[in-house]
Write a structure and sequence with these properties.
Blueprint (H helix, E strand, L loop, with lengths): L2 H9 L3 E7 L11 E11 L2 H7 L19 E12 L4 E5 L6
Antiparallel strand pairs: 1-2, 2-3, 3-4
C-alpha cells in the first residue's frame, strides 16, 4: 500500500490510538507503557511538516516533506492509560471541541 492510499484510508477514520513503551527504568524499575486515545486530524500542509521534521525521518522519507502521500497525523488526546509495572491508571482529558 502506498502512502497516498494509506492517507485516503485514514481520512475515513476519526479515532486514533498511539502507544509508547519506554526502555527499562532506572535501578531495575519496570518499563513504562502509555496508550493514548483520541480523534485524529490529518495535516497535509508542508509548512507545518517542516516545523516538526527531524533529520532522522529522512531515512524513511527520502524526499522529505515532498514525499508523495505523506501526511502528519495530529491526535487530539481524550484518554491516556499508563502502566509502570507497579501502578496503572487512566487520565481522561477535557474535550476541546475536537
Amino acid at each position: 500500500m502506498t502512502l497516498t492510499e494509506l492517507s485516503k484510508k485514514m481520512q475515513a477514520i476519526d479515532f486514533s490510538m498511539l502507544s509508547l513503551a519506554a526502555p527499562k527504568g532506572l535501578l531495575g524499575k519496570p518499563r513504562l507503557f502509555i496508550a493514548m486515545e483520541g480523534k485524529a486530524e490529518l495535516i497535509r500542509n508542508k509548512k507545518q511538516f517542516a516545523q516538526y521534521w527531524v533529520k532522522s525521518l529522512d531515512r524513511w522519507f527520502e524526499q522529505g516533506v515532498d514525499t508523495p502521500g505523506i501526511v502528519l497525523i495530529k491526535v487530539h488526546a481524550e484518554r491516556v492509560h499508563y502502566w509502570d509495572g507497579e501502578e496503572s491508571g487512566e487520565v481522561k482529558l477535557p474535550n476541546e471541541g475536537c
